[in-house]
Amino acid sequence: MPTILIVDDNPAISEALSLLLELDGHHCHCCLTPEDALATLEQHEIALVVQDMNFTADTTSGEEGRALFHALRAKQPDLPIILLTAWTDLAMAVELVKSGAADYLGKPWDDAKLRLTVNNLLELGQLRRAERARQYQQQAQQDQLARFDLCGTLFTSPAMTQLLATATRVAPSELPVLITGPNGAGKEKIAEIVQANSPLRDKPFIKVNVGALPPELMEAELFGAEAGAYTGANKVRIGRFEAADGGTLFLDEMGNLPLSGQIKLLRVLQTGEFERLGSHQTRKVSVRVISATNADLPAEIAAGRFREDLYYRLNVVQLALPPLNERPEEILPLAEHFLNGRAELCDDARKALLGHTWPGNVRELKNAIDRAALLCQQQRIRKADLALSDTTVAPRLPSELDQDSITAALARHGGVMARAARTLGVSRQQLYRRMEKLEMVR
């Protein structure tokens, strides 16, 4: 149960406020002087303060309230404080709101507005605490990840932090790993991280883009071929599985493997055995397989183009890589990383980078930055230098906002609704209504 501190030199006002706020289940401490209020703050866990601006008879300057406000904020910078003011204190109340006060209400106050304001601020306090806990957990994960070889990967988003934590956790095992995600998102980099942190880091690491292999040569590429096995095969060809023996084989664009190759791959995964094309001699290898695809393999299974048993054999551990537009906090750091000091991003270029949908993901971002760095003038990259398409992120409707995005925006802006709403592309009123719809406020 949250505890509210009420500070007013008039006992009748304190009692009225206490009775009003207790209707919503809040516990209240009432103090008549600033000194008592500061002592109470030391002794109890206070979630919110409602304070008057004057505490001495015949005093209307508001200076006592100003001093109490700053003393409370000095002890607890994040403590939400509602100011109760007479009309003569209005200018000072506005000044203190700019300094961090949560809100101000005139006397006599509106009961409904006061209850709504208090409940909203308490809910936001809970959201901020949850966000801080999430950030603490993410920082702890990032600190742990610093012990691993991340192959130069730059990451800041919670999604990538969690993905890399999972990748480094499964790396020491010999289990097959399936990396899913759109083209250009960095699936090969994730495979490299798994390999770099595995016991096989010093063993062969063979990469095969299955999607780039001609179908008629795919089996020969993967499993090898004897001389004369097909037209043009003048000598024995060592397949990728043999080359990767004792190490790791990375199969990219796995969804493009034909059914005949899928059967042989399933057998290798189950037994380690295969035959070269044109040979009856069974060979045996020990290979860890990491595969990647941008295809919807369950849909391919339903269409009869991918074997279900192979899917479950490959998908022992799945690492789902989110597209770049789902981790927008990484766009500018990645852009600066790719620039590597070659040029400076102007404000309009930064805005354009954040507004673009990035259908080509990290690969498209790198290409755009490399091109702009080459073509820009005076080492200053402007929006025009990026040559991005007109495709931008469409403004979100309030109904599209979820609790996680609202929580993150509020935490980023210290619970200030107006700033959070601006970041989310909605009005303050729309944000309040959406929060009520999601039961984030009562």
Q: How many DSSP-defined strands?
A: 14
> Considering DSSP H and I runs of 4 or more, what fraction of the residues is helical?
40-55%
Biggest β-sheet description: 5 strands, parallel
CATH class of the largest domain: Alpha Beta
Mean pLDDT: 87
Uncertain residue ranges? none
- Distance N to C terminus: 15 Å
Oligomer: single chain
Can you summarize this structure?
With 442 residues, the chain is of the alpha/beta class. Helices cover 47% and strands 13% of the residues. Helix 4 (90-98) links the parallel strand 4 and strand 5.
Can you describe what's shown?
Residues 153-374 form the Sigma-54 factor interaction domain. GO terms for molecular function: ATP binding; sequence-specific DNA binding. Keywords: ATP-binding, DNA-binding, Nucleotide-binding, Phosphoprotein, Transcription, Transcription regulation. Residues 3-122 form the Response regulatory domain. The modification 4-aspartylphosphate is found at residue 52. By secondary structure, the protein is of the alpha/beta class. It has four domains: 3-109, Response regulator (Rossmann fold, 3-Layer(aba) Sandwich), CATH 3.40.50; 151-320, Rossmann fold; 325-386, Helicase, Ruva Protein, domain 3 (Orthogonal Bundle), CATH 1.10.8; 398-437, Arc Repressor Mutant, subunit A (Orthogonal Bundle). It contains 19 helices and 14 strands. It has helices at 11-22, 34-43, 63-75, 90-98, 111-145, 158-170, 187-196, 215-223, 240-243, 259-271, 297-302, 308-314, 331-339, 347-355, 361-375, 383-386, 403-412, 417-424, 428-437; strands at residues 3-7, 27-31, 48-52, 81-85, 103-106, 177-180, 205-209, 248-252, 273-275, 282-284, 288-293, 317-320, 344-345, 380-381. The strands form four sheets. Strands 2-1-3-4-5 form a five-stranded parallel β-sheet, with helices on both faces. Helix 1 links the parallel strand 1 (3-7) and strand 2 (27-31). Helix 17 (403-412) packs across helix 18 (417-424). The chain is elongated, with a radius of gyration of 31 Å. The protein starts with a strand and ends in a 5-residue tail after the last helix. The model has no long low-confidence stretch (mean pLDDT 87).
